[in-house]
Structure formats: structure tokens, C-alpha cells
Amino acid sequence: MAALQFTLAPDDQRALLQWPGLQSGRAAPVRLVWHDTPERTLALAGLALCATTGSGWRLTCLRPEMAAVPASLLSEARRPEALPGLPQPLGPLAPVAALFGRRRTLRWTQADDTADLRLLEGSYQGPGTPACAWLVLEGDASTITTLADALARELRLSVPRASLSEAAMAASGDMRPGPRALGAPRVAEGLDVGDSLVAIAGHLLDVMLHWADQVSPAQSPEPVHQMRVATRRLRSALSIYRRPAFCPELAGLAALLKLCAARLGSARDWDVFLGQTGAYLAEAYPEDRRCRSLLRASATRRAGAYAELRLFLDSADFRRLAIALASAVALRPWEASAAPGLRQDVHTFAANTLERRNGRVRKAARRLDKLPIAALHELRKDCKRLRYAAEFFASLFPAKRTRRWLDRLSDLQEELGLLNDGATVSGLLAQLGRHERGWAAGLVEGFAAAQSGPARARIERSWQRFRRTERFWR
């Protein structure tokens, strides 16, 4: 039996109980109290010890590997000293967090499909006693995935940012959960292809969710930048694994990921424009009313792009994207195809992937000095896809050679990016209406052209350095 875990907005509990095909069971009171030593011995060891109503004591993982999977039960006993797995000697225990509420057991039936639901609703004990609702779906993997998607369309169902234990301790002020993952994922040696996909996709989902909560025009541009990079990496990962791990569940993510990338891209482009070209314009012509007017119009467009992005991140589409990703990582639907490539060693798969993507870059760069601007933009995209793949698999190969190769590729991609910046600036100015053809716009176009003018010579030098660099996977 498969299981998925989500959080539910407390205001949506009534709507859940009225969901078509749902048979509501009786509600039973529940009291959960987490304990630890004054030195937080258990939390530091990644453990959570909870006294539960009628069940004694339960020892679980404080931070499960995937937020969509309920925390695994490590041991259970009537007394804490009888629990296997507790650090010894432990010392005195004291309450550090609590949750009081009700637990309901429900059953959903539609045609031949059934699923069991466990709803935990209540309040944490802490400042403001925040309400909470946790929902666990159990049943056939396909059935609970479909049910989760249907619920997310209508209800504020979300992938948990932390485990129940972490959330309770955070509400009590005992701890502040950090991000599960940041930056690029790293694949460990010894995994097969399916396991490596889980590691990459799970990592990037956590990165996306971490930064999504922080996106705001009043804050630093960093959340949008990091979330955009994570989305791009995720799209690249799904492309890399498309053949060995093909399944409808992953294929269906493409449209939602593309929509997410478009919203992030618009906000990020205006961040970069105002932070770089706009900053230059403001410094060089601080008193010119035409420049100030263009910058005000640009700031308005940026605010609009952020508003559209925030609407998307708060929408059912983004909830469905996050839930579909979490469900795929937890339930591995691609394993039903039993594709032989899934059991292949990831080291061999990585080398083949890098060789194929590197060959695409080398083919695209033939007669580099004769390539039109449009072809150079496509080459930049191929370099980006190659770099993402190399970052995923870098930990499988010698560090020094890998770092040198990645540095040379990044230099080439950066030089190619200067040409793309000019095209991006023209596209942004086209969104400014009457400002597009003004004197200030001419200054901006000239600045962008000056920045990208010598780019071809620099691109050629960077390409030659990269082309001669030893391929680290060979």
C-alpha cells in the first residue's frame, strides 16, 4: 500500500469532509507531546520522540527524506526507556512541543477505486496556538495520485515544507526548520538510474518550495533567481531521464513546469534589467526626466510581473505541480514500465548522457565564427543543458578535472549570455509602450550593444579553451 502526506489549509477541512465519494468516519481526540533533553540530544540526532494518546511512545525520523512521505516509525513502546534506537545514555526528558486536536479516518470510493484518508486536525501549542491540518492518503499508487491532484484543484492542499514533528517544534519556538535542500543536486555513487532520478527530482522540488515561500517584490531578487534555476534544472533532469523513466505522470509535468518557468523568467528579466542596465542609467543620468520616466515604467512592469508570479504560486496550478512532483518522487510511477535502463548503474548512464550532450554542443559550434546570432543563442541553450547534466553527475567523477571542465563551460556560457542580454533588453523595452522609441531607450540599446559588441571574439577564445579541456567522464 502506498502513502502520501500533505498539509491542508484549516479553512478547507469542511470542504474536504463534503468531498464526493467520501465516507466520514468518527473523530477521536488526539494529544501529541514531543519530548527531548535540555541539550536537544534527539533533535541533533535527527530523531523525534512523541507521546501519543493511547499508543505510548513513538520514535520517528525528525526530517523524513521526502516531505510527501509520512515519517517512518522507528520504534514504539509503552515506556520511552524501552524504545530501541534511542541514544544512550539519554538523560532526563521534558516536553518541547505539543499538538491537541482530533483524528478522523475516512474512506473515498469512486467506481472500482478506493483510498483511505487519515485527517489530523488541531492546534500546536505555542505563540498564537496556530491551527493545522495534516492529511495522509493510503491506497493504490495510481489512485491516491489521482485523488491528490483532484483535491489540489479545489482545496489548498500542499506538500509539507517540514515534518509534523518539525512544524510542532517550530510553533513552540523550540527550533526553526531550515531548507531541506539548496543549490544543485549531487548524485551519490552506487545508485541505479531510478534512484538517481529520485535524488535529483526530490532535491529540486525542495529547493523550489523553499524559495517559493519567499518570493516578493519587496524582498531581494534572490528567491526568484534561485527558484528559476531550480525549475530549469528540473526541466533538464526530466529531459535527461525521459527514455529510461518514461511514464505519463512525468510527461504530464511538462506544461505546468513551462508555465512556472515563464512566470519566473518574466520577473527575473526585469530584476536583472533594473539591477544592471537600469542601475547604470540611474547613475549616469540621475537628473534626466526621460531616464527617470523609463525607469519608473520599468519598475511598474516588474511589479506586474511579480504580481502575476505570486498569483501563479498561490494558484491551483502550482499546487498541482508540486503535488505531482512529490507524488512521482515518493511513488516512482516509472517503475511500472520495468524499462531495463532503470537498473543500469548511474555512473554509466551519466557518462553516456554527458557524451551525448557534449556532442550536441560540439556539433552546434562548428564554424563558430560564421554562426548567426540566432544560432549562437541556441548554442547557449545547449551549453546550459550540458552544464546542468554535469552538475548533477559531477560527484561521480574526479573533482579536479570536473571543476576545470565546468569552469571552462561556464565561461563560454557567460560570454554567449552577453549576446542574449541584448536581445532580452530589446524585448523588455518593447513592453514599455511609448518609452520603447524614446531617447532613454536609445541609451539603453546602445549600452547593451556596447556590452555585447566584442562578444564574438571572447566567445571564440572561450570556445577554444573549452574544446581543448579534457572531458572528465572519459
What's the total helix number? 16
Structure class: alpha+beta
What helical percentage do the residues reach?
40-55%
The fraction of residues assigned to DSSP E strands is 15-25%
**Major β-sheet annotation:** 9 strands, antiparallel
Radius of gyration: 26 Å
Rounded to the nearest angstrom, the distance between the terminal CA atoms is: 42 Å
Low-confidence stretches: none
Q: Could you tell me the mean pLDDT?
A: 90
Order of neighbouring strands in the sheet with most strands = 5-4-3-2-6-7-8-1-9
List keywords for this structure.
alpha+beta; 16 helices; 474 residues; 9-stranded antiparallel β-sheet; 17% strand
Describe, in plain words, how this protein is organized in 3D.
- The protein has 474 residues and is an alpha+beta fold.
- It is 52% helix and 17% strand.
- The chain is built from 16 helices and nine strands.
- The chain has helices at 13-17, 41-44, 141-154, 164-172, 193-212, 222-240, 248-251, 253-275, 277-284, 289-313, 316-331, 346-364, 373-393, 399-429, 439-452, 455-468, and strands spanning 2-8, 22-36, 47-52, 56-61, 73-77, 94-110, 113-124, 131-139, 157-158.
- A hairpin with a 6-residue loop joins strand 7 and strand 8 (131-139).
- The longest helix is centred in the last third of the chain and has 31 residues, at 399-429.
- It is globular and about 75 Å long.
- It starts with a strand and ends in a 6-residue tail after the last helix.
